[in-house]
Structure to design on (673 residues):
């Protein structure tokens, strides 16, 4: 305790996510009791390989929500970027390393449009991205002619488990994105601006921060990361699906909120969101593994989401007291 | 031009004084504005063009030819798009025999919109409605009204619920494939390459959908008949991504799983990816249903064993033909079974 008292910043940084780690371990523990085969390297690897797309999308969503905005279009943008990836790889025979930047640019363009329209015409991001949700889905159907495209080997290496390691390249990249995201948020000027704008936009303006570029950038980042997520998703499935990412925005928002980011803006953590993603993914995988019925899956997932937020809030409160 | 939206001064002051949480207040305010705007638009539209304003333009054609309305589920879905494309191609060849109006709903579960479409088509006075109902129960009342108004109604794709039809006292002919029989065909083919007593898992579609229940029953029939052990039946909601997650979990829980029976091809693709990721390719066999283009490549590569083709491009055509028959001969409407074929590596070109 002495060591931590002299370094409160370390405690707060570590403690910020401790409640979530506890929830994650609890979830893993419960499933281990319910199934003999749950607690194994194979299970953990397989869960890890399922999260990359949701993880990077949630990083983008974290930034958007910290500015007190919301992005409902990420699922559709992911489908649209995936469609571009599929068209490039199947119809034009591009390699993944060329198609991936294309997908990210497609996502970036959608995100930029979200941010620009929202800022330029002072329309709440809720409405703008609700519109983009439809537009991008339409573009995804147009791009793929409403058909699932089978890509196969050229895309699969990205999401396939690395031999001997068990986790995929996509997971490693997703973790790198999370680390960079956390660094940018907490250690860079841009990150400070994002936090300040979310906390008090008026004060930020008065202190001379130009808000518009920051806000647009946040949406553009979220779009580009949805594009990256599209590549991860397609690589895991070996195919692109115009119906991909339906409901993804809600999963991402849930992960971000579980991760302790305030929907009112001004406070949040990328690492927290990542833990939120892991909790949700473990829950889905575990419920499927123990053979839970459809209604039970919904009941349990909903309850755990709320429970996780309660535990996190309680933990944060205790932490504040202990620091004070 | 419409007057700009203005609020009563008192209300405006009230809204100003309200200080709820910042994000929600903007959402709330835009929500109110949007709602009011939509209301205005709706009223405006009604005054201008009458109630049938949103019906599509009438197709040019010779008078006297019957008009048939094809009402689909989501045209964004590959399966229904294929169906509609097939119907339009057929219409292209028989332009002199009938007029075709194709309508779809945006979201497959948007029942209200589909009911409204039926009403619009009846108001327009079409001779026949060929419909793929978004729900096997909720569409019955409006279709009954259509029939009472003198419109010929033919049910395709998703069969209307027999009990509800009986209760409403209507007969609506169903023209379509027997999903249970099709699934049984696929299951039988799979059983040939499994040893007796092998462990298999079934991926179900949306459990409330009639065709999902039928396919699951067909798979179960085949597996029980061949003496296989069904260790799990889980829903993956027709979705590739969900099928991937569920299959990965099933493989962990049942390491000796020998086969996955997916109720549609999208789920078969998701399952195939999960089996590959688990390094069990070849050891776990996969079958699907629908014969979508993406799965054909997998069948050729030997990663998927078989699927069923219910001739999606012909499904709506069969319905239209039945409707024309009833219109021309005043034939008594009766159910018709359309073919379902097994697709394997050998049957693909």
């Amino acid at each position: 305790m002495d060591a931590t008292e002299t370094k409160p910043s370390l405690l707060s940084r570590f403690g910020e996510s401790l409640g979530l780690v506890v929830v994650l371990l609890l979830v893993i523990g419960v499933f281990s009791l319910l199934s003999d085969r749950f607690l194994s390297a194979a299970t953990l690897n397989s869960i890890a390989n399922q999260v990359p797309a949701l993880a990077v999308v949630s990083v983008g969503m974290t930034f958007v929500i910290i500015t007190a905005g919301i992005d409902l279009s990420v699922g559709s943008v992911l489908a649209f970027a995936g469609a571009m990836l599929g068209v490039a790889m199947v119809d034009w025979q591009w390699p993944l390393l060329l198609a991936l930047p294309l997908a990210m640019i497609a996502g970036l363009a959608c995100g930029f449009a979200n941010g620009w329209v929202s800022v330029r015409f002072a329309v709440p991001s809720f409405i703008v991205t609700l519109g983009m949700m439809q537009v991008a889905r339409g573009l995804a159907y147009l791009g793929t002619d409403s058909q699932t495209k089978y890509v196969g080997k050229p895309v699969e290496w990205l999401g396939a488990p690395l031999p001997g390691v068990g986790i995929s390249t996509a997971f490693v990249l997703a973790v790198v994105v999370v680390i960079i995201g956390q660094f940018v948020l907490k250690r860079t000027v841009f990150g400070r601006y994002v936090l300040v704008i979310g906390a008090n936009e008026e004060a930020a303006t008065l202190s001379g921060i130009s808000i518009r570029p920051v806000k647009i950038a946040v949406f553009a980042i979220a779009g580009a990361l949805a594009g990256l997520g599209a590549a991860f998703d397609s690589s895991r499935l070996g195919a692109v699906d115009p119906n991909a990412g339906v409901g993804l925005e809600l999963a991402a928002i849930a992960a971000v909120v579980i991760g302790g980011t305030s929907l009112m803006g001004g406070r949040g953590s990328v690492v927290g969101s990542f833990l939120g993603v892991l909790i949700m993914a473990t829950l889905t995988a575990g419920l499927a593994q123990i053979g839970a019925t459809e209604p039970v899956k919904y009941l349990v997932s909903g309850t755990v989401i709320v429970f996780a937020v309660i535990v996190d809030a309680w933990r944060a409160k205790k932490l504040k007291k202990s620091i004070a | 031009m419409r007057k700009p939206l203005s609020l009563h001064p008192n209300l405006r002051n009230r809204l100003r004084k309200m200080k709820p949480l910042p994000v929600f207040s903007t959402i709330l305010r835009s929500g109110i504005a949007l709602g009011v705007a939509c209301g205005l638009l709706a009223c405006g539209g009604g005054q201008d063009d009458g109630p049938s304003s949103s019906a599509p333009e009438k197709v040019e054609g010779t008078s006297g030819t019957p008009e048939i309305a094809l009402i689909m589920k989501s045209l964004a879905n590959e399966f229904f798009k294929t169906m509609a494309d097939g119907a339009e191609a057929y219409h292209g060849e028989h332009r002199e025999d009938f007029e075709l109006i194709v309508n779809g709903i945006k979201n497959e579960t948007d029942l209200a919109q589909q009911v409204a479409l039926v009403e619009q088509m009846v108001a327009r006075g079409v001779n026949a409605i060929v419909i793929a109902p978004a729900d096997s129960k909720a569409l019955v009342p409006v279709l009954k009204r259509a029939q009472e108004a003198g419109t010929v109604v033919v049910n395709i794709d998703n069969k209307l619920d027999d009990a509800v039809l009986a209760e409403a006292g209507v007969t609506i002919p169903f023209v379509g494939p027997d999903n249970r029989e099709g699934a049984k065909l696929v299951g039988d083919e799979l059983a040939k390459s499994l040893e007796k007593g092998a462990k298999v898992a079934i991926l179900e579609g949306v459990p409330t959908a009639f065709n999902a229940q039928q396919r699951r029953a067909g798979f179960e029939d085949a597996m029980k008949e061949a003496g296989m052990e069904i260790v799990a039946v889980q829903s993956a909601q027709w979705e590739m991504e969900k099928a991937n997650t569920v299959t990965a979990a099933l493989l962990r829980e049942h390491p000796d799983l020998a086969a996955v029976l997916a109720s549609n091809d999208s789920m078969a693709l998701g399952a195939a990816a999960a089996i590959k990721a688990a390094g069990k390719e070849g050891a776990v066999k996969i079958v699907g249903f629908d014969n979508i283009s993406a799965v054909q490549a997998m069948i050729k590569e030997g990663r998927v064993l078989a699927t069923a083709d219910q001739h999606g491009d012909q499904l709506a055509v069969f319905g239209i033909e039945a409707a024309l028959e009833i219109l021309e001969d005043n034939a008594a409407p009766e159910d018709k079974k359309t073919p379902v074929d097994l697709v394997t590596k050998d049957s693909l070109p």
